[in-house]
Amino acid sequence: MTIKVGDAIPSVKIMQATAEGPKEVDTAELFRGRTVVLFGVPGAFTPTCSAKHLPGFVTNAGALKAKGVDLIACMAVNDAFVMAAWGKDQGVGEDVVMLADGSAAFTKALGLELDLTARGLGVRCQRFALVAKDGKVTHLGVEAAGAFEVSKAEAILAAL
User: Fold this and answer.
1) Among 130, 107, 105, 127, CA closest to 44
2) Which is catalytic among the residues 49, 77, 100, 156?
3) pLDDT digit string (tens) for 1-47?
4) Fewer CB within 10 Å: N-end or C-end of the chain?
């Protein structure tokens, strides 16, 4: 079942890409006590993700934080090393936390998995963005196949 507004963020262990290397984090703890924007992408270094999705959140990080966002996080079903390299390539700095859901456990717990096995990509994450306050989802935008409207940074800014 897909997560919805009002639901609590599930507790799943995933990896955070850091300058010191991968760090295990519990998603429920990551979201506890703060306002978080989490956006998920089908894959690091993929066209729309690299050209529009992640750059939009980097560009709008200041505006999001001015509206009360404490943490902006990007998630993909990739390993922490790939997410770190992608973050470095995109110049995210301290603006966006790069989260690696290598086995898609968090993605599946959110009900946002996308089976791209037929295209050689395995199980990935749907393109989405959500806002959570103290671990509860207050806004959710999940893209239709091939779309890029409800999960972009500007749409999240408008929803805040």
Assistant:
1) 127
2) 49
3) 799 999 999 999 999 988 888 999 999 999 999 999 999 999 888 88
4) N
| Alpha carbons 103 and 95: distance in angstroms, whole number | 25
For 112-146, the pLDDT digits (tens) are 998 777 776 767 899 999 999 999 999 999 999 88
> From the CB of residue 68, how many other CB atoms can be counted at a distance below 10 Å?
11
The residues with which 133 forms a beta bridge, in sequence order, are 35, 136
Reading the block at residue 115, the tokens are 């089976």
Domains within the chain, CATH numbers bracketed: 13-125 (3.40.30.10)
Report how far residue 92's alpha carbon sits from residue 64's, in angstroms, rounded to the nearest whole number.
14
> Does the annotation count 74 as an active-site position?
no
- Amino acid letter, residue 69: V
- Relative to beta strand 35-41, strand 23-26 is unpaired
